[in-house]
User: Fold these one by one.
Assistant:
Number 1:
Amino acid sequence: SAQKASKGEPQSFNSFLAKFKTALAKNDKPALASMTKLPFLFDNAELDRAGFIKRFDVLFDRKTKRCFVKAKVVKDGEEQMVFCGETIYVFGKADGEYKFLAISAND
C-alpha cells in the first residue's frame, strides 16, 4: 500500500523537526541539547552539552527562532537543511536517530 511505501525517513524526520521546533519555541535548552549531536562544532570550538546550552542564545537568536517556525526544509542527500538568512542549520542521522548536526554559512 502507499502507506508502506512512504514509511521511514520523511515521517520520522518531520516528527523530529516538530519536536525540535516545539523545544525551540519554549526555549527548552536541555531538550535541544539532547537533540543535538555533541560535541557540537561552533566558532572553531567543540561544545559539550553545557557549552551548547551556554551558547544557545547565540546559536538561536530571536530572529532565527522566528525564521524556524516558517522555514522550509531542503533535503540534500542524507541531510535536511533549514535556511535562515545567512545561516544553514543542518540535520541528519547520527547513531541511528535524527539530530541537529551543524551550522554553516549560506554562501
Note: The two ends are 42 Å apart (CA to CA).
Number 2:
Amino acid sequence: MIDCEKEIKKYWDEEVKLSEDDVGVLRGNRDENIKKLKKRLMDDSFPLHKEEINQGSYSMKTIIQHPRNDYDIDVGIVFKEDDLQKKGKNNPLEIRKYIAEIMKDDRFNKQPDYKKNCVRVYYNDGHHIDMPIYKEYKNENKTIQELASSLWEESDPKSINKWFVKRKEEKSELKKIVQLFKKWARSRNSWSLPSGLILTILANEKYVSYYSRLDEKFYWTLKALKDRLKYDKKVFNPTNNDEITSSDKHSVKVNNLTKRLDEMFVFLEELETTSDKKKVLLIWKRFFNDDFFVNQVKEIKEATITNTNQPWLKQFDRKN
C-alpha cells in the first residue's frame, strides 16, 4: 500500500478526535449536571446517590467530533437500595421518572425525559447526558449493582471501561482505529449502523497489529471485519459473553454494517494495488465522504494523475 499514514493521522488529529477545549466543555456540563442532581435531591430531602460512574465513549476517550454537537455523555448514578426503598422508589420505572422530573430546568429548550435504560438531559447546544440509574446492595458479602431498565437487571457498569483500558495497553493504536471506524460509520446521515460500543468490540476483535503504519492497520482491520461479518454477525459483550445483537433493532444495524463494508470494498481494495498517491487519497476521500483528502491531494507538488477522465476519479465527487 502507498504510504498515507501522515494524511490519515492528520485527518484523525484535525477531523476525528475531540479537541481538549471541547472535551472540557463536555466535562463541565457533566459536572454541572451532577451538581444540579445533588442539589435537587437535597432540596427534595432525598438521599444522595453514593457514586457516579463515567461510561461509554466519554469514559473510554473514543468520542469523536460531531458536526451538530450531538455528543452523548454517559454517567451512571448509583443509589443504595435501602435509600430507594425508604423513599418508595425501588421500582425501576418510578426512579427513572423521578430523576427526570427533578432535573427539569426552564433554561432547557427540551426537558429531560426517561428512556428504557436511562434518564436523558438535553443541552441547548446539541449534546445530551444519559444517566443510567443503578441500585446497589450486598448479597452474601458480594456487592451487586442493578440497572433500572424494564426490570432491575444485574450489571457491572465499570467492567467495559476496565476491559477497554486493558485492550488499549495491549494494542497501541486501537483507540485511533476505533475512532476512525466510528467516523466512517457516522459519515452518511442516511445510514443506520451499530452503536459505538458494538463498533468498538468489533474493531478490537479484528484489530490487525502486524503492520507498522496506522493507514495499513486501519485498512486491514476493516477487511478482517468485513470477512468476519460474512459468516458471523453476532457480537458479544466481552466482559460477560452476553450477546448484544440479538434484538431485531441491533440485528438490522449489523446487517447494514455488513452491506456498507461490502460496498466500500468494491473500490477500497484498490488501495492494495495502486501506486498513485493522489488516487489513494481520493479513495480515502470517498470512503470517509470528506473533502479533507481533496485538500491533501492539492498539497502534493508533483502531479501523478495523467488521465483525469478515468472512471474511478469521477466517482469520488458523488455523495454516498
Note: The two ends are 24 Å apart (CA to CA).
Number 3:
Amino acid sequence: RFERGETENSPALAVSLCEPVDAYVNEAFGASHREHASIVGPPRLLPSAAGRLLEREYEVLSGLITAPRKPFVAVLGGAKVSDKLGVISKLLERCDTILVGGAMAFTFLAAQGHPIGDSLVEPDRIDACKELLATGRVQVPVDVVLAQKISATAPTRLVGAAGIPDGWKGLDIGPESAANFSDVIAGASTVLWNGPMGVFELAPFASGTRAVADAVTDRGAVSVIGGGDSAAAIRQFGLADRVDHVSTGGGASLELIEQGDLPGLAVLREGKVAS
C-alpha cells in the first residue's frame, strides 16, 4: 500500500499487475475489505477465484450472522467504540449478549453517568452507547484496573467502574468483571471474540484478556476469534489451537459481519471465473 495507485484503485496499476499473469487467486482475506487496485482490479481482467482460506473465512463469519448456534455471545474490546457501533448493532440482531471491555468500554460507562477519569472516551458516541445499553443485552465492566500511565512498572489501582478518579485511566477490566464475563461465556454455544479487554501486552493489564481467553477455550462452544489484537492475544497465551477459527483479518472480519459482504468478495462473484 506504499504505491499510491494501489490505495486509489488505479485501473492502470491493475492492468500493469495483470500483464504477466494468467489467473488470479485472492487468498488475502485481511485486505479484502479494501477497494484497492490489487484486490478489485484483477478479477475484472483475469480468470479469478477465491482461495481456500478466503472461502473458509467467509463460511465461518457469515455463518455467525445467518445461523449461529444459540446462545450466541460476542465479546468486543479494543480502543474505539466508533469502530464497532455498526457491528454491535448488527450483532444484536443475532446475539443473546454482548460483553464490552477494553478502552471502548469507558464511553459506555460515561453513557451510564459514571466518571471515567482520564480514560479514553468518545463524547460524540455517548448517546449511541445509551441506546445500545437500553437493549439490556450489552454488559460492561463493573470494576477496572487503573494506572496513571501505560507502563509495566506503573502503580495500579482496582476500583469499581462507577468511581474512576481524575488523573487515572482504565487499562483493564477488573477481576469481578472478568468473572462475570466468564460466566456468560460459559453458558454460550457460540462465542465471537474481537478485541482485548485491556493493554494485554503489559503484565499488570493482561488479566482480563487472559480470563476471557481461558473462558473461550475452556468451553465446548463454537469459538471464533475475529482477528487483530484478540488473535495476537490468543497466540500470546498459547491457546490458538483450542479455538475453532482464528480470523486473519480484524477489520475485514468486522466489516463482513456488519455489511454482509466485502469489495474483494463481491468482485470475485462479478468477474471472470477461473476454470
Note: The radius of gyration is 20 Å.
Number 4:
Amino acid sequence: MSDILKEYNDIMQKKDKIVAKIAALLYRELISITPVDKGELKSDWQLTKDGSSWIISNNMEYAEIRLSPLIEDNGKAIVGSFKYPLGIQPVIEKYNIKLQKELKAIK
C-alpha cells in the first residue's frame, strides 16, 4: 500500500472515531437534558449508524414541539423546557463546534 493511501486510511479512521465519539456524547446529553413528565420522550431517543452517518432521533409525537426551536402556538413560541428554554439547538451547536475543532486537529 502506498504511503499516501495509508495516510488517507489513517485519517479516515480517525475521522470516523471522532464522529462516533461526538455523536455518542451528544446523544447522552440530549437524553440527560430531556424534560421528564412520564419519561416517554426521554426513553425514545435513538442513536443509529447509517453507512458513515450517525443519526440521533426521537419519534415521540410531541418531540417536535418540545425539542425544536421556535414553534408557534397561537402567536406564542413554544420552545424547549423550563430548564432549556431555547430547546436543543444550543446543545447541538456546542457539539458541532467540538466536532469541527477535533476534526481540524487530525494529523
Note: The radius of gyration is 17 Å.
